[in-house]
Amino acid sequence: MKYPAAEILKQQIPLLDYVEGQDWKPARRIARGRLMGLCPLHADRKPSFLLDPNKNLFYCYGCGRGGDVIRFAELYHGVPFGEAIALLRRWSGMDSLLSDVIKFYQVQLHRHPEAAAYLMQRGVRQPELVEQMRIGYAPGRCLRAWLMSLGYSLCDLQQAGVVTREGLDTFAHRIVFPLDTNLYGRSIGKADPHRFLPGGKGGLYGWEKVRNCRQIVLVEGVFDWVTLWQAGFRNVTCSLGTGLNATQLHQLCDGASRAVYLAFDSDHNGSGQRASRQLAQRLGAYHIEAFPVDLPDGHDPNSFFVHSGDAQQFQALLDRARS
Ligand SMILES: [Zn+2]
Q1: What is the pLDDT of residues 176-191, one digit of tens each?
Q2: What is the CA(93)–ligand 1 centre distance, in A?
Q3: Do both 303 and 247 map to the same domain?
């Protein structure tokens, strides 16, 4: 069966643009303009991923998978067909606007000492990680004027949700983290702490980097993710809240055998602990081994490291969760 919408989408989105948009770099060019590089779909050591920009098709000689841009999005993000279509559609429409917004916020981060101070206070200390994650800051002014000077209409901006109905910056006074198809803003002031653009938070943060790991640490906040990464843990992913959406569950339960450590916040009222026990049961039903991690009372992985916890101590908590 042919899906007309899918055919149109395939013509709109060159496979190479999309794959490069996911940080893929070709290693060499071969005959007829085709490209070879490391496979983004499996742990690849020598370039086995072939991409043909003329035919808009890929094939991997390592994992044996291939297809068009929709198939690539399904495999890469670990989502079903319909979700891949939605993801690509958002990517094509919002890609340029979102990347302009992200660039603006990145520049502002360096111009506003309050933002840098907040990052320090949350234990974010590696400038190269800030760069790599494209973390930015929304100062709460100039965004609309800047984007309109680039040619976007006010209506474009409101539709995407980057400015409010009143024309104000949605993420004002927030540290902003780019996600796959959305943005997450963490307030540095008294405003509502968490904010996203409309349209759902998408899949697990950094999923492509960890999907081949046999053991995964799942945290609920991006600051938890950052501090664990800085401490040397490379098998971390983040659900942006304790409630996993269908895409995130689908990613964790994609049939690969893996163990998942649930390192949610240890709240005084026990809500984080309850959430991780419930999730462990849910994952258990899919034959995923899940281990709730007990952090010291009132701590999350971020505050654990900010309050002088180290990698060895955190590893001890993971080991204890398993025993
Ligand atoms: Zn492969």
Answers
A1: 999 987 899 999 998 8
A2: 28
A3: yes
